[in-house]
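Worked example 4.2. Below are the chains of a multi-component assembly; read each line carefully before continuing.
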Amino acid sequence: MSTNTQLLRFITAGSVDDGKSTLIGRLLHDSKSIFEDQFSAISKTSEKRGMAAVDLSLLTDGLQAEREQGITIDVAYRYFATPKRKFIIGDTPGHEQYTRNMVTAASTANLVVILIDARKGVLTQTRRHTYLASLVGVPHVVLAVNKMDMVDYSQARFDEIVAEYKAFAAQLNLHDVTCIPLSALNGDMVVDRGDNLNWHKGPALLEFIETVEIDHDVNTSDFRFPVQWVCRPQTEEHHDFRGFMGRIEAGEVSVGDEVTVLPSGRTTHVKDIVTYDGKLQTAFAPQSVTITLADEIDISRGDMIVKTDHLPPKVEKEFEAMLCWLSEAPLDKNRKYLVKHTTRTAKCLFSRIFYRVDVNTLEPHEVEKLNMNDIARVALKIQQPLVFDSYEIDRATGSFIVIDEATNNTVAAGMIA
Amino acid sequence: MSKHTFTHLDALESESIHIMREVAAECKNPALLFSGGKDSIVMLRLAEKAFRPAKFPFPLVHIDTEHNFPEVIACRDKLAQDLGERLIVRSLEDSIKRGTIVIKDESKPRNPFQSVTLLETIAEFGFDACMGGARRDEEKARAKERIFSFRDEFGQWDPKNQRPELWDTYNTRVHAGENIRVFPISNWTEMDIWEYIGREKLYIPNIYFAHEREVIRRGGNVIPVSHLVQPKPGEKVEVVTVRFRTVGDMTCTAPVESIARTVEEIIEETATTRITERGATRMDDQTSEASMELRKKEGYF
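Applying the procedure described above to all two chains together yields the following structure tokens:
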């Protein structure tokens, strides 16, 4: 196995009826990522449940708590590798709480595979999945037209579905959409190309996810460094060392660059970029590094270091955002919540709910409160200024979570407009 | 814009460093659980990468079952000393003396009791966050657990009541008496661990490499002979070339037959093996389909 492989995170959107579990099972099975003991465990269970063939969906099914209480836990993670890439699959089972689960899993994904049944074509749920993918800004979308075996591997049927889908997707903010015909059941165009879809000139699913360009999935233009932790060893050897530790969320920085610290606005230069493996001349997203500065400036966790000549982020106490409400307790406009944004946590108030989006029709509706799974445009007032970009420019500095101080639960996910 | 190489190991490493720094910054009194096994040795290197040139802003803690392989304990002590970091060891024997653990059969695995001593240690020091080296690829209960896994005041995991975890924005908040288990290497696989051990040239206990060992075969498992496990009448002691894929309780950790004597050879073997790590080596996970889930609910890692 090569150690120079990249990591790609993806999710699959679709229901059991679309063959989602079969597709994941097929990917794992044909790429030889299922182990014998796992296979024998699910074979035993399939037999016990009186199934004729081994049910590959059992691989992601699982906890006793889920079986006993008839619930599904929102996201399970699965791992597999090919010689070209390592993959993390965020698997979101079930129909219930679909919005909440998909938003959660999509938040870290490079790519989403939206599954549809070739017989049924583009359905309401296809539109919903696609809207959520665009809302969460998943960089790459694959429309996997499954069950091609049930439509005689018809190119005309595939073309018809693709045309309808592309017309819909064009209204949304999606940058990279790839359509692939396949049969998860028979394995056509999943890992192997098979013999039934020779008219398809594009890549098979695995080939596509192995090769799609992901270097630019993080923002590479404007340097953003939220300070996580201030390192002051105060030992004899490192007496005056004062390093700012964090992960570069966007762009890159070099020794000598002029930087501005926000929200204070003070400027200085990068003295050193320190890592355990030695000093660097240049560092880039998403590296975790330690930066030392030429001048002594008061900097603490929650501040952000940016490059002075780059596009400045906003520093504001009020902004609008798209919000996905995750909690069973509805949003209460009279209450204060906490916002955690990059490395800063502050009190907030929701000053206005502009509208709720119907995820099936994409129509806006006026509402007074938000319930679990609702997506809405809101206005927030924060107790202290946040340093942010719009989510569209930078997922890392444009996203936040909302925490209920009474329960400490994470109750919402926000994307700054 | 120049193109930088950023491999999967770089990505995983940076993610883990970011998680550890969030713990240091947001938790009042964290600890890093360190056993001397390969995953926790990787955790130590990640902590060095996260916090040097300073000391770790947390102690290392080991909950010792006293059923550990001596090579692993020696490695634990050597690494903690080489790093100059504080190591706190609490033993199941202490809980046995206190009467909070009652052992009926000395030859049985002690893993189920580890939760008791762990919770007592958490209470003794008032830890609000414990970082551990568990991975999601190990077991299906772990596959569904968060990186920041909230525990109630009894240390219990409630799988259906987990906090949603979005982006890399972690909710670390707990009320007094509650705590969080944090798994910075959640997204690493067994292969990633070995590749990283190779890349970083990490010192690991020699029982991970192929060696000759006295074993007996019992119920389809290969069991190492030790002072805790002796052959029963009719059982034959064999000398076999084996290595350990995991190093837990001596009574329930089975070695695999292997001739891999270097990290490179282990990587090669890991790439071609057809059995999962726990499936091959942990008899305590085989007792029921939900054994790990049940232990986690009781406060186990």
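Take a moment to check your reading of the output against the notes. Chain B is about 35% helix and 15% strand. Chain B touches chain A through 69 residues (CB under 8 Å).
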